[in-house]
Amino acid sequence: MENNIMISLFVLLPLLTFLISLLIPEGREKTFSRLAFGALSLQLLGITGYSVYWIINGMNHVNIPALEIFNKGDYQFLLGFYFDTVSAVFLWVGAFISFLIIRYSRFYMHLEEGYKRFFITLLFFYLAYNLTVLAGNFETLFLGWEMLGISSFLLIAFYRDRYLPVRNAVKVFSIYRIGDIGIILAMWASHHMWHENINFIKLLDKDLVSNQMSSHGGIGLFIAVCLWIAAAAKSAQFPFSSWLPKAMEGPTPSSAIFYGSLSVHFGVFLLLRTFPFWEHQLTARILIGLLGLVTAVMAYSIARVQSTIKTQIAYASIAQIGIMFIEVALGLQVLALIHFAGNAFLRTYQLLVSPSVVAYMIRDKFYHFKPKTIRLEDTFSKRLAYSMYILSLKEWNLDRLLNRMFFNPIKRFGRKLDFLTPKNLLLFFLPLYALGLFLYFNKEWVPDTILYYLPGSFGLLGLFMVFKAFSERIYPRLALLLVMANHFWVALAVSFNENFDYSQTMIYLSGVVVAGIIGFWTLDYLRKKEPNHFDLNQYYGHVYEYPKLALVFLLASLGLMGFPISPTFVGVDLLFSHIHQDQYLLASFDAISYIFGGIALIRIYARLFLGPHVKNYHATALKSS
Amino acid sequence: MAHSVSSAMDDIIQKLGHYLPAQFPLKDFVHHNTLHAFQHLPFHEALHKASVTFGYKVYWNIERYRAYFYEKKINEEILKRVITEHKGADDLAHWTNLLLHKSPKELIEPKIGQIRKLWRQAYNLNLDKEVHQTLFRLLNAYLDQGIAIWKFPAGTNGLLAGIRKLEKNSFSTFIKSERVRELLFDKSTQLEDLLDLLVGNEKFYGQYLFDQQFSHPGWSGMVSVLEHNESTLLDKRKVCLYDLIFLECLLEIDALDRRRGNRWAALAPLIPPDHLGIFEELKYSEWFEIHKLWQEALEWSYYDQVIKGLQLSHEEDFKKKAAFQAMFCLDDRSCSIRRHVEHFAPDAQTFGTAGFFNLPFYFQPQHGKFMTKVCPAPVTPSHVIKETESKIRHEKDAHFSKHSKGIFGGWAISQTMGFWSALKLAKNIFYPSATPAMVSSFKHMDPRGKLSIVSKNPENKHHGLQVGFTIEEMADALEGLLRSIGLVQDFAHLVYVIGHGASSVNNTHYAGYDCGACSGRAGSVNARVAATIGNNLEVREVLAKRGLIIPDTTVFVGGLHDTTRDEMEFYDVEDLVDSIRILHERNVKTFEVALDYNAKERSRRFHTIDSRQDAKKVHEQVKKRALSLFVTRPEWNHATNALCLIGKRENNRHLFLDKRAFLNSYDYSIDLEGKYLFGILKAVAPVCGGINLEYYFSKVDNDRLGAGSKLPHNVMGLIAVANGMDGDLRTGLPMQMVNIHDPLRILITVEHYPDIVLKTIQTHEQTYEWFANDWVKLVCIHPESKKAFVFKESEFFEYIPLTHSIEAVKNLNAVLESTSENLPVYLIG
Predict the structure, then answer these.
(1) Residues 699-738 of B with CB under 8 A from A
(2) Which one of A54, B551, B592, B757 is most buried, counting C-beta atoms within 10 A?
(3) Is there a domain that residue A376 lies in?
(4) What is the pLDDT of residue A578?
(5) Among partner residues A342, A388, A391, which is closest to B419 by beta-carbon distance?
(6) How big, in percent rounded to 5, are the helix, strand and coil portions of chain A?
């Protein structure tokens, strides 16, 4: 029992702190920092105390199926917690670093515009961190995972009145979410594999796992690969690495805690957490090890040529995380945990003292300078060296690679749908959807072969909507409507699968409709107020004049994108459980549209509300700054 | 570099270089007028022009002026007078209404960027996005002073040459277009050829390049500075603006070729026929007039009190035999410490002068591989002072080592030292202490080392510079110093010469915190050298012949004041005879108390400290702040500066000026011709004016003329800071240096006869420009009648302050503890 209480407290206390912090009015620097510092001190004490107690008592794995969020017969949404060595290490390191950073930021952020925003986001991040680390099942983990993504977006775009932070925040958010496709699909597949929302503790049951594996070998590998992708994206491994240095746009302590230490190690965490699951899959282990190896070599070469301090630290850290991947793949879990903690501390400190590098290195140079002459006589080795140098300076073209792989094709595809406008959307949508509904209610009329393909086709239609929303350049309201439309298509597609309770679809769509209407209303209001500055072609920075409206729209977007805990999310998860095991395509379509819908919404938010303010009656930053 | 540049192109590049920010690499950071390129115009006109051309904000936000008005920080009477003076009494009501109620409107787009933005309109192509990242990375890789572990491999003989070599010998390339590669490798390619492709009409080349370079003024400005000041980099690099522009044009063509293939053409046909150049004539703007009037009202609301205060001086009150005398830098940070010293030793006399103490030289620390210049930036010294027997070495910190960034090194270090870092961080956050990463003014010179001050043989050269000074040179320097501050008789037993420096950690702009008159270094060597020269018997003999008699009983002692930690150290004290040493030790006690109270006074602006505590306690906390990683404002440096008073200390010692004044001692009565005054003004106008205007512009437009918040800054190649990984370099001062600064131009007051002052400033055109164009305000106080004269358009006019009386404050400490706001002028007893 004491286990349940303590472990739940580690999540509840940050939650409570976060909620209280929302209520404190702006400008109360002391109140914020005291609240945050007090909570973190308590948390650190509690975690230290509990860990000692837990170690003395034999380090038994603790599983807590704590909260039933939703129960509908065969489907349960459980908020479950789990505590083992991995949780203990991550929890303690997280608490310790956050404790220091909160204290640090209290003074560091003094007089900064957005003091409140900073602390709230940091507390939100900390909540997400603990939720993820203590998660007892995939659903809970995903909850924390998504919250991490949003808090990360908000911290990178902390300087929301400049162009680069906002652009990079959207970029990082996009890459994060691409990784999330992996988690969603892994959740879906494991649901089918275990026929329940599997608790992590069950993975320890070796017989159970090997039994399942022998009968579901294909799915097993599928899940492993999905996790592999999710981990790679979150930990900036190959080919996702270039987001990490780009994320260093916020105040230095937030860069330190996020990208230096805690957030960036979540890939390692995911691998450690699911290790028992893929432990016996040699292919998966080789893949993970190889990924780590490639990343380490690549990141090392890039780190060597960086001439800015934070970028250099970022790539140095990526290289170490690559090695952690190898360690995990080799089964050296304890080593990986030690490595994680050491690397997190080291990079936090290095980032925090990074401004000192000028004074330090200049003095170093002053006393020890030796001019270096580089001689490469042999033309071929010179050629190789130069090529390597340029390649590393270009970050191995990773940025371009990602654009080519993911974003450009989607944009190109979306542009094909440019005939859609806010006015004519319904003309296309309503008849088609009516047809879909008609078919649904009259399934018996539809030939079986067609019926088989229908869900997939509807899923695909939804996906098209989202792609168009993602690439829309002119009409913000259209983009929003398209994301809504996607949800309707998904609902319809899944409905074809089996006869189930309408109320499940209702939960899902009600969330979509409410959030969508609010979002639409905010956009419409803004359009009427700022008719000349209302499209998606550039960043407008309307948050300067409409801070409240921006907040409302952000919340509505979160609701609409199916952000965890919103009704939409429960619906999304629930609908996923109705996608059959063999419907890989439909599952992928849904996962991708879910992910890109989120990106499209954040893009609308960023373009309209963030960036340098379009009106120049006050000082605005140059785009290149 | 063998590029021949046509004279038209050369003119354009020259002009560009003139308008770009002229900020040196961080280690040599010196304050200067941010809008130096507009200095040939009168202040308000220049601001208007700069704003219209480049889109800078040049005045405070109108809401701030209005708030100050309602808070009575802008005096209503003064505002009325300003409006009446500029607009006539008849329009007073009209303009008052405009000033108070006209609401802000959207401003027109600046003229810069108008041509280049056509790319986006015509081809929906964001060229900046395509080009900047590559350009900045290449530039930074080339110029890097020691961050990268693998340095730029293709030489240091020019950016373009290096890129050519790299691109030619590599399988991986930045430039993809075949035609652009040919242009790059063909040595006969001229910049005009590239511009012909991009722009297509010579008429617009100039403006296109302005558009292009001003989309990243930070990098362009840095290149321009390095082109003309090669020696500022320790690891030498040849670089020039021409190369940068050439490379950028190539990258632009490459981007266009990549994205558009054949489907693009030069811009000229797209430029509207009625297009105006960027430096076209100004149009009258009511909006700027409103701001101008507010600005004048804000400034005169403060100036008026100061002038009144100066008229209330009673030199005689302070005429006593001095117990000791102390020279400080004229720096505004010395303003308060001098007040405290005088408070605790009422019979002491303090002086202010430029902190290099009239001794321009290079300093060669014993183990250093380079020399450092320790005199004002524009001066080129011909002497060097070498240090011997120094024990100061460079302490290492493994956190900056390159091994932590490798694969195996990183692996080993993160698992071992990583845990040590956690402890170190925790310790620094709760119990800050000194680390190798910090900057301390006391480490500039080893007090126990020996300095080669006296030149025994002028032929003894070090890098072409004379080692040490000859007797004659020393006598000249000392005479100049003493006469300019008016210390020619009544020498006390002890005369202190105290330089200043600063300490901080995690501060990229550390050089800006040290002594500006010593090129951003601590003034310790200069102070010590000056004192040694003062004690030199041969020098005294020469001076005695010239009528400047320094009694044998007088001893000079050099020292250094650390303005961040409020600590002092004194040099060569062990050489003092016992009787003098006892006096000195008594004085040290006085200094210590004064330092405690100075720290306490400063602490009212530090939010981590409760200023009401006992002075000693506060001082301990102030010292700790300087070592804390998270303190972004170890001290406020020159923030709030607004005044420069030139005259006898006895004539301003009765005033409380809230650390806002540069104080230069000067006695008109021994300089009736204005010879020394000229020396002072020639230095003070650009130095104090430069500091003041840099603060002004960084405050009013922190986004474009300042460096923005320093919290997200990333160090680029050890030469500058930028935001994130791909941002442009940020010039100017970070937000954290100017939070409390009110944007006032500096008021220079001179105690002398108006005709002499007028004659003096007119002797030197560059100096005269500062006053004639109103970049600094000048007021002359008549030494006998105390009448004030304000300098306006080449003449002095009598000024009668509206302030009737100045409040006298008995308990200054109570006032200081009560608020963290700027304080008005008070009379102190």
Answers:
(1) 700-704, 708-718, 721-728, 730, 736
(2) B757
(3) no
(4) 79
(5) A342
(6) 75, 5, 20
Identify whether the C-beta of residue B524 lies closer than 8 Å to the C-beta of residue B444. Answer: yes
Distance from CA of A584 to the nearest CA of B (A): 37
Would residue A386 count as lying in a domain?
no
On whether ipTM exceeds 0.85, the answer is yes
- Packing angle, helices B524-535 and B537-545, rounded to 10: 70
**Which residues in chain B have Cβ-Cβ distances shorter than 8 Å to A311?**
714, 725
Whole-number Å distance between alpha carbons of A510 and A41: 41
3-state secondary structure labels for all residues of B518-584: HCCECCHHHHHHHHHHHHCHHHHHHHHHCCCCCCCCCEEEEEEEECCCCEEEECCHHHCCHHHHHHH
Residues B41-60: b if buried by 16+ CB within 10 A, e if exposed: bebbebbbbbbbbbbbbbbb
Q: Are residues A425 and A309 in the same domain?
A: no
Q: Measured between CB atoms, does B126 come within 8 Å of chain A?
A: no
Range of the domain at A600: 416-609
- Give me the phi and psi of B389, to 5 degrees please: 55, 30
Show Cβ contacts of residue A156 under 8 Å, excluding neighbours closer than 6 positions.
Answer: A165, A168, A169, A172, A173, A247, A249, A250
If one compares B291 and A421, the residue with the highest pLDDT of the two is: B291
Say whether both A303 and A420 belong to one domain. no
Cβ(B308)–Cβ(B298) under 8 Å? no
Q: Are residues A456 and A350 in the same domain?
A: no
Of B55, B148, B153, the CB nearest to A374: B153
Element at B432 (helix H, strand E): none
Asked if residue B1 has pLDDT above 60, the reply is no
Report the C-alpha gap between A476 and A536 in whole angstroms.
6
Could you tell me if residue A372 is inside a domain? no
Measured CA to CA, the distance from residue B679 to residue B687 in angstroms comes to: 12
Whether A339 and A433 share a structural domain: no
DSSP readout, B161-216? HHHHHHHHT-SS-S---HHHHHHHH-TT--HHHHHHHHT--GGGHHHHHHHHHTTS
Same domain? For A138 and A261 the reply is yes
Q: Is residue A434 part of a domain?
A: yes
User: For residue B147, which residues of chain A lie inside 8 Å, CB to CB?
Assistant: 306-309, 312, 357, 361
Confidence class for position A424, pLDDT limits 50, 70, 90 = confident
Q: Looking at chain A from residue 225 to 284, which residues have their Cβ under 8 Å from any Cβ of chain B?
A: 245-246, 248-253, 255
**C-alpha separations of B670 from B324, B479, B554 in Å:** 21, 13, 21
Q: Considering A343, A360, A377, which residue would you say is the last residue of a domain?
A: A360
Count of domains observed in chain A? 2
- Give the tens place of pLDDT for each residue, B43-101: 999 999 999 999 999 999 999 999 999 999 999 999 999 999 999 999 999 999 999 99
Among A344, A360, A376, give the residue marking a domain's end.
A360
The verdict on a CB contact (< 8 Å) between B394 and A252 is no
pTM of the model: 0.95
A163 and A76 in a single domain? The answer is: yes
pLDDT in tens, B487-537: 999 999 999 999 999 999 999 999 999 998 999 999 999 999 999 999 999
| Chain A residues near residue B414 by CB distance under 8 angstroms | 320, 339, 342-343, 346-347
SS3 readout for B261-274? CCCCCCCHHHCCCC
343-372 in chain A: CB under 8 A from chain B? 343-350, 352-369, 371-372
Residues of chain B with Cβ-Cβ distance to A315 below 8 Å are 405
Q: What is the pLDDT of residues A479-499, one digit of tens each?
A: 999 999 999 988 888 888 766
Among candidates A304, A323, A348 on the partner chain, residue whose Cβ is nearest the Cβ of B425: A348
Is there a single domain that holds both residue A43 and residue A162?
Answer: yes
Mutant choice from B167, B172, B424 vs A, greatest count of A C-beta within 10 A: B172
